[in-house]
Design brief:
Length: about 210
């Protein structure tokens, strides 16, 4: 199916280690977003939008755990290593054939990963972000995408934070930066005209002025 929207759906860190309440890394609002994320993924597939599952998985020896998270990783039983329950996704959010899976070493889905390369090969101009946590991995991915000249959509009810206040202010900040914040229900009406391609428009203006 042709991807007429030139978009990609990027689900970030929706693994058991960030979702289950007994995990040291659990995000309070993450579990409640699983059904909405699953529905949004189905919407993306129906529209021919490629789906990327971006995950954070730690080496068993902890050598790649963020310094600021290392103590929690130790106290939490060294979770989210390859093959562990914490590194797995809920059944509703598991990749299907044709989807992309990317392992990221830090917060942003772009930092030292192949994401940008694949998106450009696919002709993607807009990234649609969902997952957890909004102030960390969603936000850093949003800002990196903006820096790389992608248009950004953030699905508000497919993202989560530790508190409602943290969620609200971070969504507002990303909107002020230029991200298009919408709900999963609004996403069902998403098409090639929903988000203006600002970089393309600016490039055309520059070319016309030469």
């Amino acid at each position: 199916m042709q991807n007429t929207t030139k978009s990609a759906f990027i689900l970030i860190d929706m693994e058991n280690g960030f979702i289950t309440p007994d995990s040291a890394h659990c995000i309070a609002g993450a579990a409640a977003t699983v059904p909405t994320c699953a529905a949004a993924i189905e919407t993306a597939r129906q529209k021919g939008i490629p789906v990327f599952f971006v995950k954070r998985i730690y080496r068993a020896d902890g050598s790649d755990v963020e310094c600021t998270r290392h103590a929690a990783w130790l106290s939490g039983g060294r979770s989210m290593s390859p093959g562990s329950f914490g590194a797995e996704e809920p059944e509703a959010l598991r990749p299907r054939p044709g989807d992309y899976t990317i392992i990221k070493p830090r917060w942003s889905a772009f930092f030292q990963t192949e994401l940008d390369l694949i998106l450009r090969r696919l002709g993607v101009r807009t990234v649609i972000l969902a997952g957890t946590t909004t102030p960390n991995c969603i936000r850093t991915t949003c800002y990196d995408a903006n820096a790389l000249d992608y248009n950004v959509v953030v699905l508000s009810d497919c993202t989560s934070s530790q508190t409602e206040e943290i969620q609200r202010v971070n969504l507002e900040d990303m909107a002020r930066m230029g991200a298009h914040v919408m709900t999963a229900a609004e996403f069902t009406g998403y098409n090639e005209d929903t988000v203006p391609d600002l970089a393309c428009a600016i490039r055309s203006q520059i070319e016309e002025s030469l």
